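USER:
I would value a second opinion on how I read folds in token form. Give me a protein, with the fold worked out from its sequence. Write it directly below this note and I will take it from there.

ASSISTANT:
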Amino acid sequence: MKQKDLLYKGKAKSVFNTSAKGKLIVEFRDDITAFDGGKKDVLKNKGKYNAEVSAFFFDYLERNGVKTHFFTMLDPHRMVVRKLEMIPLEVIVRNIAAGSIVRNYPLKEGTPFAHPLIVIDYKDDARHDPMLNDEIILALKLVTPTELKKIKEMALKVNRLLSMLLAAQGITLVDFKIEFGRQGRTIYLGDEISMDSMRLWDKKTGGSLDKDVYRFEKGDVMAIYHKVAERITKPMNKRR
């Protein structure tokens, strides 16, 4: 399989066509951004850590019944994935109040929700990813009612599986963002699942183990990413 022309370049990943039908290559770059791209840097090995963790999570989820776009890693930065028709929704699952939901609503940071909250944003940089409700999603014809139900069910299953996995390593899954795509009538989990798209807290110290370290200058973000990647993947790999 050969990498071909660039299909899409995002803030931290590039997607390429390939010589293999139905397969794409996702390259995890070392770019890191925050605040809608207002803060930007290039940090060595950042892409490698996110690719490693994403591949690990996708493999774990596949083995537990969640369909994902992941096939295999080509090298530490490049992932082979299923070509999907991506759905322009950012699906955010929140277990604990933090981040924008605290800024926008009268909620105290650190408050656990009785049940996970699903918040869905419209993926559109020009509109700054506005929040949607089910009625708007269906009015825009982004998905069918059946697909929307399936997406929510998958998001909650991902939350259950990742929460259990991370809790065993002393990490609290506060919230995370995921994206979905279609191939035919089947919905797959796409994009990535990494420290860039999750909010993780250390159970003992309460310290941030994610991109908030970069956003709010809480320390050496690459040292944190390295430690988190090892902490998440190494214990499970040893059990296989």
Q: What stands out?
A: The chain has two domains: 3-82, 85-219. The two ends are 29 Å apart (CA to CA). The longest strand covers residues 171-183.
